Amino acid sequence: MSTSSNENTYFIDAENAAEMARLTVQDRLTTQAMGGLLPEQADVSGIYDILDIACGPGAWVLDVAQTYPEKRVTGIDISRLMIAYAQAQAREKDLNNASFQVMDALKPLEFADNSFDLVNARFIFSFMPATAWPKLLQECSRILQPGGIIRLTESEWYFTNSAAYERLHGMVTQAMHLAGLSFSPDGRMVGITPMLARLLRDAGFAGIAEQAHVINLSAGTEAHQGLYQNLLAFLKLIQPFLIKTGVTTQAEVDSLYYQAMGELMSDEFCAVSFLLTAWGTKPA
Predict the structure, then answer these.
(1) What domains lie within the chain, and their CATH numbers?
(2) Core vs surface per residue 146-169: b (16+ CB within 10 A) or e
(3) With a threshold of 0.70, does the pTM exceed it?
(4) Strand-pair category, 116-122 with 72-77
(5) Is the N or C terminus of the chain more exposed, i.e. has fewer CB atoms within 10 Å?
(6) 54-63: per-residue pLDDT in tens?
(7) Collapsing DSSP states into helix, strand and coil, what is residue 12?
């Protein structure tokens, strides 16, 4: 779920070990909250070749490969650190049906036409300029078999009762808006979830459907510790991006960071996250 290039559009250093650990936690939390790896796909018997775009450290690919040993699963990411870690994990787990390649999702994908039965992408809004979505989805259509499935999962992040976190969240969405990484007209949200079905439709996919999920991340829930670990790293790693875009200063963001982490550990802390999966098929 990362990208890094000469024209870096990802708001965190993709070659950072702390970011790799954070993405691993986020990936497991997301899969559990969604109720499985492919929860909306009632029949996966006709799916053999699967691609995961911006796979990060490879948790989803590895889980799919282990759960479905008859399927071939490929993950791509532009971070060499993430791919090297994912490859090592595949070897350690003896998953010969899982493979990983360094590849930039913002450039033409290095696969032949009709190569995959399913293309998966989760939380790629973090590096996707709004103007880049049509090109990527056309590439996904090209590499999918006729009748193949594309599935996109995105989120507007967390809604909480933490004053400090909400201020930081507002800074993040405003910075993304300024950087062209948002569909929001005013930067109050990321704005990706309302667009998923439209983007798939405009790319020529058919049978488009959506499924929503909610994660309760409040104090006392099973997911709360995962949220804390995620934000402990994320809200630190994203600070250079916030300062670069001019939405805050180092002194202000430091103060808000420590206040937010304290509020997250309060017994009164409440939070939910809404996820939306949209999927469609390439016309036969």
Answers:
(1) 17-281 (3.40.50.150)
(2) eebbbbbbbbbbbebebebbbbbb
(3) yes
(4) unpaired
(5) C
(6) 999 999 999 9
(7) coil
